[in-house]
Amino acid sequence: MRIRVAEAADERNSLPPGRSAFKNRPEPASLPPHNRPRDADGKGYVMKSITVLVAGAFALLPLGAGAEDAPREAPGVGWAITAVSGAATVDEPAILFEEGGRVSGTSGCNRFGGEATQEGSVLTLGPLASTRMACPGALGEQEQAIFSLLGQPLEVVLDLATAGVTLIAPDGGSLSLQRQP
Hints:
Structural class: alpha+beta
Pfam families: META
Helix content: 10-25%
InterPro entries: DUF306_Meta_HslJ (IPR005184), HslJ-like_sf (IPR038670), Hsp_HslJ-like (IPR053147)
Organism: Pararhodobacter aggregans
Protein name: DUF306 domain-containing protein
Strand content: 25-35%
CATH architecture of the largest domain: Beta Barrel
Shape: globular
Domain DUF306: 76-159
């Protein structure tokens, strides 16, 4: 078996200008602009359009919410926990209410997930499962307070002053939530 190495001046390997070696197809530069790759990574107009449309749709989600239905729109929406019983939080704890009654989030140290149910204005979470990393100092105290509150039935109260939601436990503790962008 012989293998022939082509050289630049080899007439048998040259193609007419504007044609590629792949099945004699046109070079990208000779294609119409809408079929031509735009980036070095080869993404064209269609991929960019889909990306822009999806990003735009998610950006518009908060615009359809009215103040009177804020607690009901919670599924699929992320909330930053900004205060625990009036004390500001550290390391950005958050909670996400998902479709189908699922809830997940982070205490700022450990992640958690479980079930959520709402009857009237009372939200009940649990049972919750969480990771178990050690959380030192203020972060550990914050986590204990958050998990303690999430283990109780919580009254959902719309806070018109901050456009947020406050979850109030029967023992008087609370979680202040702000919708995440």
